[in-house]
Amino acid sequence: MIFSREYVHYLARRTVQHLLDAKAIRTTKPEAVVERVNGVILEELSLEDRINEEVRVILDAYQDDMRRSGASYTEMFKKVKVELARKYKAVL
């Protein structure tokens, strides 16, 4: 993940505080909202990690073919990642 968990929690707290200050949301349990927002942010950020891992698994399966054809691992990684992001409708 590109951000630390502490920073994500900070972002969640600030986001909820901003929404409360703007009166965009109302709650009697702001900490519960912070935890929910924190979980959603972490899930979204971990999507890229899961996609990267899936790309590695795919490329490992085609490692010999790539070596024979002279394909660049880096270029293939980018191409496969873009395809998987499209498949999962993810914005990376």
Give an overview in words.
The chain contains 4 helices and no strands. By secondary structure, it is an all-alpha fold. The two termini are 12 Å apart.
Please provide a brief summary of the model.
The protein is mainly α and 92 residues long. Helices cover 77% and strands 0% of the residues.
Architecture blueprint of SSEs:
Layout: H1 5-21, H2 30-61, H3 63-69, H4 73-87
Helix pairs in contact: 1-2, 2-4
Question: Which features characterize this protein?
Answer:
single chain, 92 residues, mainly alpha, 4 helices, 0% strand, rod-shaped
Distance between the termini: 12 Å
Instruction: Tell me the count of domains.
Output: 1
How much of the sequence is in beta strands? under 5%
The number of distinct helices, counting runs of at least 4 residues, comes to 4
Question: What form results from the Cα inertia axes?
Answer: rod-shaped
The average pLDDT score comes to 94
What is the oligomeric state here?
single chain
Sheet with the most strands? none
What is the string of helix and strand elements?
A: HHHH
What is the structural class?
A: mainly alpha
Percentage of helical residues? over 70%
Radius of gyration: 19 Å
Query: pLDDT below 50 for ≥5 consecutive residues: which ranges?
Result: none
